[in-house]
Amino acid sequence: MAVFDLFKPLTLLHGPAMRNRFMMAPLTSQQSEFDGSVSEYDQFWMEQLAQSGYALIQTSAATVEAGGIAFERQLGIHSDDHLPGLTTMATAIRQGGALSAVQLHHAGHRAVPQVGGIPAPASDKTVKGVKAITTEEVQRIRDSFIAAAKRAQLAGFDGVSVHGAFGWILSEFLSPNLNDRTDKYGGSVENRARFTIEVIEGIRRVCGPDFQIGWRLSIERYGLRLEELREITAEIFNRELIDYLDLALWDSAQVVREGAFQGKTLLSIFTELPRKGVRLGAAGKIYSAQRAGELLDEGCDFVLIARAGILQRDFPLQVKANPLYESPKMPVTADYLRQGGLSERFIETMRGWQTFVRPGS
């Protein structure tokens, strides 16, 4: 498929269409204020992205409860006090012509006490000395996701993306290794998926028919089972519960090494599913115009740009100007990132990503 097709519009089940096939992935920047409020660095980052040609821009993971925090200086959406900053962020994205979404996040058992987190495991066995959250606590956190989505809508965002990846709370509940509950949120695949489904259905109920809902799903680690995730996704597609699925792959070309799907790409296992009006995109080592175009050939409706968008903020505009565009090679110097507009806080975060920032720079 020609790179040109990346610039065709894409309709969604709810709300406005995407103007092209580029979505900015949610990126942990750790540059918010300590209470989760939007900082001047958050705002400047969003203003840069808003002028960079994306069709939809997701914020970094935003806490739906204060105790669900995983990172120092993590963005928050758990309080009405966060609304003014979130509103300025949504306004900047809208003025640049893109759609916007807040990524809704709760760290679950991975919450970090040193920054105020309260671990909330699905099982007694996951975190030493911490009991599984009760059924009532599951439902409280579910309602916190829904309330956070309403705040995003009040702030002017077009939608939210529900973070169901990387062992965070919704992903944790999907895992038979991390979820040995005996209530209605544990046991069968249907029960383990109930938390996620109730969050999504609740957001639709409260935010109405014009609000967009995405779902971020990862497939690896934390005891997740590919066959089960495929089954859950098929049900969500069939019921058209979401507007788009964001497959968070470490490598969009990754091949399954064992089991029933051995030899197939992870991506193909999901692109082969009937998805009705739901759109599907993938992240994972998309560093060139060519690779972005190939993903449309492989069944994606859109692509999620992550590290390539940090290396070069206006990745879509670069691709539009040059169908042979390739991202700068990593590692890059801290000065290179500064010149591109990254804050010192963001650069410090990127030093923690293997091979991203040149040591000593």
Which descriptors apply to this entry?
12 helices; 12% strand; 361 residues
Main beta sheet: 8 strands, parallel, barrel
Instruction: Tell me the number of helical segments per DSSP (H or I, 4 or more residues long).
Output: 12
Rg, alpha carbons: 19 Å
Question: Taking strands numbered 1, 2, ... along the chain, how are they ordered across the largest sheet?
Answer: 1-2-3-4-5-6-7-8
Compressed to H and E, one letter per element, the order equals EHEHEHEHHEHEHEHEHHHH
Mean pLDDT: 96
CATH domain class: Alpha Beta
Helix content range: 25-40%
Strand content: 5-15%
**Shape, per Cα inertia axes:** globular
SS-derived structural category: alpha/beta
The N- to C-terminal Cα distance equals: 39 Å
The tally of domains stands at 1
Question: pLDDT under 50 segments (min length 5)?
Answer: none
**What is the CATH T-level topology?**
TIM Barrel
What CATH architecture do you see?
Alpha-Beta Barrel
CATH superfamily heading = Aldolase class I
Total DSSP E strands: 8
Structure notes:
By secondary structure, the chain is of the alpha/beta class. 34% of the residues lie in helices and 12% in strands. The chain has one domain: Aldolase class I (TIM Barrel). An 8-stranded parallel β-barrel has the order 1-2-3-4-5-6-7-8, surrounded by 5 helices.
